[in-house]
Amino acid sequence: MVAGRLPGAALTPERRDTVLAALRGGLVASCQPVRGGVFDEPELVARFALAALAGGAVGLRVESLADVRAVRQAQIRAGSAAPVIGLVKRAVDGSDVFITPALDDVAALLAAGADVVAFDATDRTRPVPVTDMVAAVHAGGALAMADVATVAEGAAAHRAGADLVASTLSGYAPGSPQQDAPDLDLVAALAAEGARVVAEGRIASPGAAAEARRRGAFAVTIGTAFSRPEWIVAAFVGAVAAAEDDADAG
Known about the structure:
This protein is α/β, with parallel strands linked by helices. It has a single domain, classed as Aldolase class I (TIM Barrel). It contains ten helices and eight strands. It has helices spanning 13-23, 42-54, 65-78, 103-112, 130-139, 151-159, 184-192, 206-214, 224-227, 229-249, and strands spanning 27-30, 59-63, 84-87, 116-120, 143-147, 164-166, 197-199, 219-222. An eight-stranded parallel beta barrel has the order 1-2-3-4-5-6-7-8, surrounded by eight helices. β1 (27-30), α2 (42-54) and β2 form a beta-alpha-beta unit.
């Protein structure tokens, strides 16, 4: 593997330190296309990943086994050692957990080359306990990233051994603020709990990313703001249309 993970080998302190040092204080690019959209091809996702690395991203968050494999192969060709945070999204019966819900998903992501495995660590009805997910990731030689929505969930995941705790699900799960802005209060509170917090979710500008870091984020993730041209163009279209309406009203 690019960053030195040996398939089937348990996580070592040296390995953990290497990955964490690579991510510390940097920007993670979430390369997740609109499924069914024009960029929903593993090769195109890999190109977005390489573009993000060229811009200075220190890590990549990638969803689906095919995309993780494609990004990893592109990295190998480019000689990049940036950690890949892998996840899958799929529904399971009897649970609202959607991000890497099962141990089989962990094993598949490890085989695909993920250095970090991200999974839903909310307190909703779960297919697998958080402690078991963390243990499976560590047994495969990777780091565990717990995606949470609340301080209590993040603190519990941190105690369970998650190497990173991400604010990903704030606004998408019960008990969290329903807002358009990033949940920087959650970031600050989790940092105060001693967790390595990855600020993620609705970070749409460089200023918001910088503020997340100031509030205690170990690293910051952006996604839609860079990897979804349809969203970016729509924002400009809306602004131009609003300006035209103002001009007409004047």
